[in-house]
Amino acid sequence: MNFFKKIAEWVRKYDDAHNFTCDICGREVFAGERVCAKCREALPWNSGAICPLCGRRVKEAGVCLECKERPLEVEKARSALLYEGEASRLIVRYKRGDQYLYRAVAELCLSTIKSQFPEAEGLVPVPMTARAKRRRGYNQSLILCEELSRKLSVPVVDAVEKRRETKSQKFLGRRERESNLEGCFHVADRAAVKGKTLLIIDDTLTTGATVSELARTLKRAGAGRVFAFTATSVENKHPFGKE
Ligand SMILES: [Zn+2]
Ligand SMILES: [Zn+2]
To answer: Is the pTM of the predicted complex or chain greater than 0.85?
Structure first.
């Protein structure tokens, strides 16, 4: 570990030991906690009926229509929370500058990952281009991975690069998202992924296009099994393939 990493590690440990308030509401929390019990309880947990493949909330039990038509490239995807209310506000804050929220987000994700993906051998962040990272100052998927790695003792496999900038996905449908992303990822370290059971980690599953493209790239590079976990997921509100 180099000198700067050691200092960053020390600062992180100091912050962890000196946090007394909830990252969502500011109320007092117990030592080692980032989100208070009241906020935890009020969050929109993805605990009802879900699609067994993409993990998104569904109205009726069973594989969702979108997965029937075009399943994701991962064996299974799961998310801890629904992307709505306080959970979506937390994610938006986390992505728009409140970098320290990685601890709160990780805390809310831990039990789902532990119960759903005990076989994971490596946590894979969604890479950003160097330019995008400079603009935001951090890769939210990578620092979430690093925190989860510390808590779960599963290593981070940061072996993929994003080679070209893609358009903002916000106003694109699934097909457009897919062609926008095609070929944007590249595995720089094939040995790190070969034969491994990998878990992609991201903040939100919307159409799943990013997760699918990354999974496809990992499998082409020889990964064994590929799963995905996102902190939140968007409920599929257009079951008939409207994009
Ligand atoms: Zn709170
Ligand atoms: Zn599905």
So the answer is: yes
Output the CA 96–ligand 1 centroid distance in Å. Answer: 20
- Provide the pLDDT for residue 4: 83
Q: Tell me, what's the pLDDT at 159?
A: 96
What's the rounded Cα separation, in Å, for the pair 46 and 50? 8
Distance CA 175, CA 213 (A): 12
d(CA 164, CA 105): 28
All residues with CB under 5 Å from ion ligand 2? 51, 53-54, 64, 67
Task: Collect all residues with Cβ–Cβ distance below 8 Å to 38 and sequence separation of at least 6.
Answer: 25, 27
- Closest listed ligand to the CA of 239: 2
Ion ligand 1 residues within 5 Å by Cβ: 22, 24-25, 27, 36, 39
Report which secondary-structure segment, H or E, holds 226: strand 225-233
- Could you give the domains of the chain? 1-42 (no CATH), 47-233 (3.40.50)
Question: What percent of the chain clears pLDDT 90, i.e. is strictly above it?
Answer: 72
Residues 134 and 32: their CA atoms lie apart, in Å, by 31
Express each pLDDT in 123-160 by its tens digit: 999 999 999 999 899 999 999 999 999 999 999 999 99
